[in-house]
Amino acid sequence: MTIYFYSNREEPYGCFSNFSPHGFELDGFYWPTSEHYFQAQKFVGTPYADRIRLVKTPKDAAKMGRDRSFPLRPDWSQVKDDIMRRGVLRKFQTHTDIREVLISTGDELIVENSPIDYYWGCGADGSGKNMLGKILMEVREILRDRIN
Ligand SMILES: Nc1c(N[C@@H]2O[C@H](COP(=O)(O)O)[C@@H](O)[C@H]2O)[nH]c(=O)[nH]c1=O
User: Fold this and answer.
1) pLDDT attached to residue 146
2) Helix or strand or coil: residue 3?
3) H or E segment at 110?
4) How high is the pLDDT of residue 86?
5) What is the largest CA-CA distance in the chain?
6) Are 62 and 91 in contact, with CB atoms under 8 Å apart?
7) Where does the signal sequence lie (predicted)?
8) How many other C-beta atoms lie within 10 A of the C-beta of residue 108?
9) Below-70 pLDDT ranges, the chain
């Protein structure tokens, strides 16, 4: 059965959301959520990236990352998938409890059920690319292979 998730408040799969409160260290810093990491990479090497890292909630990080009054790094569309993969992998490497939740989904399809996002999610009509779901399934395979 397909596993849908979106908000970090939905159990048991809320931990698949980038808004879930599972921090990790990566690239020399501590990131409170994978959303903080992802949004800050849009402006890597600038003071604005540091400001995103230090905000309290993933919602604030997402809002700041989407603010186009700060210039987006020019290679963003080429690197964004790899950045998401790196952050999500490190999150699930860091936390044993959610790693087990991810591996327990076996070979089920995982879908970010976002009604507005047709790139990371499936969008309102299910036609979206579901890139976050695909990355979670890739991470699941990497972590499963490491255990066996
Ligand atoms: N907007 C949202 C989520 N969507 C997240 O937003 C990010 C995409 O950002 P961008 O490419 O900047 O539009 C990505 O991490 C996606 O999973 N998730 C949630 O739990 N709750 C939300 O309210």
Assistant:
1) 74
2) strand
3) strand 110-112
4) 98
5) 47
6) no
7) none
8) 12
9) 147-148
Label each residue of 19-30 as H, E or C. CCCCCEEECCEE
This prediction has a pTM of: 0.95
Taking Cα atoms as reference points, which of 11, 123, 9 lies closest to residue 58? 9
Q: 3-class DSSP state for residue 36?
A: helix
At residue 147, the pLDDT reads 57
Q: What range does the domain containing 104 cover?
A: 2-147
Q: Which atom of ligand 1 has the smallest separation from the CA of 5?
A: 20
| φ, ψ of residue 116 in degrees (nearest 5) | -115, -15
Task: Give the count of domains, the chain.
Answer: 1
134 lines ligand 1 (CB under 6 A): no
Phi, psi of 45 (to 5 degrees): 85, 5
Measured CA to CA, the distance from residue 114 to residue 7 in angstroms comes to 9
**Assembly ipTM:** 0.86
Ligand 1 close to Cβ of residue 13 (< 6 A): no
Going by alpha carbons, the residue nearest to atom 20 of ligand 1 is 7
